[in-house]
Amino acid sequence: MSPQTHPHLRRHRRTKIIATIGPASSTPEILARLFQAGADVFRLNFSHGTHEDHAARIHAIRALEEECGRPIGILADVQGPKLRVGRFGGGRVHLQTGQEFRLDLNPTPGNSRRVELPHPEIIEAAQIGAMLLLDDGKLRLRVTHKRDDHLETEIVVGGPLSDRKGVNVPDIVLPIPALTAKDRADLAFALDHGADCIGLSFVQRPEDVEEARAIANGRAWIMTKLEKPQALDNLDAILALSDAVMVARGDLGVELPPEEVPLAQKRIVRAARALGRPVVVATQMLESMINAPAPTRAEASDVATAVFEGADAVMLSAETAAGQYPFEAVNIMDRIVARVERDPGWRATTEAERPAPEHSSADAIAAAARGVAHTIEAKAIAAFTSSGSTALRVARERPDCPVIGLTPDVTTARRLAFTWGVHALITPLTHSMTETVARAARLVQQEGFAQAGEEIVVVAGVPFGKPGTTNALRVASAK
Q1: What is the pTM of this model?
Q2: Fewer CB near the terminus (10 Å): N or C of the chain?
Q3: Of the candidates 389, 425, 406, the residue with the CA atom closest to the CA atom of residue 2
Q4: What value, to the nearest 5°, has the Cα angle with vertex 70 and ends 68 and 73?
């Protein structure tokens, strides 16, 4: 996308919206409607669809980006390992609570007493007393005996079970990588087609993130999906290696007790904010809108809670990918977020939960920019950034005026679409602070954030174009 000179579409909220693309939302016309309704980032779910499907969607998103003159982020979400039981003789059985049930390596179709578990690593790693959850946690088994080729379990919660249903193992750290052969192929495809961020599933250990980072090699951000209890045990180390994180409440809600999920969400958001990592809250945010034109009150409150907690973005999954009302889902999420951010309580909460600056000159400049902007009631903070780090540091401060991320790099502009409060613009590299301030003053007015004579704050790094050198602050007037 080339630098633009005409006024751009402007969001009147800080928290970003991610919309998942699928059969209900893949045409250029619907993508345009979703973007106009408020989608800042489009997610491609590689658990579904072919590479040809995703290539067409990426092409349509980039065409929309060029037409609208606004950078749009693309999140490529890879599937990760899927653990499943085998098949049953009649396709379906009923497991009776209190009875014994065997999980083994025998591919013979199962019955109400046994079924294949084609994952020897689970059998090897399981301990007596460990819980296995089947079919998204609807059935619960407790391991009572362990052999080399099978597990004996007691059915703690029974019910119907059919072919190839999923298995969750919240009590077990599995010695398997987060990336399968399919994931590696999908990751290579996504990188070759210009995805801005890779959603990494099934992360248990920091090593899982290191592997994906090595493959991406800087070509895309790595967004770690926190959906395994084991990842929470390694949260700080995992966050340190991640460019962004997602509170993936689907599997997290299966493997953790329900009462623990809101606390885990709050902990993850707080920890990510402290490190300045963009954090997304996802899964079932407006679930009822898959089939209904309006959300429940509880769902509206769920979105509002994520905004109050300080999430950088909230995400729609099946609501926009396969639902009957994708436009309405984005529209109402935009309205909920904007309304929360107009509430005085939101600003008070944001101020109270601001993390302390790190002990670096870059963080000191970012904190000072927020303080100066607040004191002089600046209309915007313009952050010149090549890698995105300057804009990320300013966004971490959660200033009460908009952050304009000015960058010569289209890749950086697209990544900033994931970041709280940042309105990214592509502009040529500047070579002096005087030139930087003059361009910021012009662009901030041109984009409608300030009128002539109104004050703005400008932050940048000298020497220009060198990542991670945020060290300069100026006050200027829009013109």
Answers
A1: 0.94
A2: C
A3: 425
A4: 120
**Which pLDDT value is given to residue 8?**
54
Residue type for position 449: F
Domains and CATH numbers, the chain: 16-80+178-351 (3.20.20.60), 92-168 (2.40.33.10), 361-477 (3.40.1380.20)
Tens of pLDDT, residues 168-201: 999 999 999 999 999 999 999 999 999 999 999 9
Cα–Cα distances (Å) from 11 to 7, 60, 247, 374, in that order, read: 13, 21, 24, 21
Identify the CA nearest to 71 among candidates 15, 1, 5. 1
Q: Of 13, 225, 370, 398, which is the active-site residue?
A: 225
Catalytic member of 11, 33, 82, 84:
84
| Polymer length of the chain | 479
Active-site pick, 20, 153, 224, 283? 283
Residue 84 falls in the annotated catalytic set: yes
Q: Decide if 283 is catalytic.
A: yes
| Structure tokens belonging to residue 110 | 């199962």
DSSP string computed for 314-338? EEESHHHHT-S-HHHHHHHHHHHHH
- Angstrom distances, CA of residue 353 to CA of 178, 218, 347, 427: 33, 31, 10, 33
Place of tokens 């579409």: 9
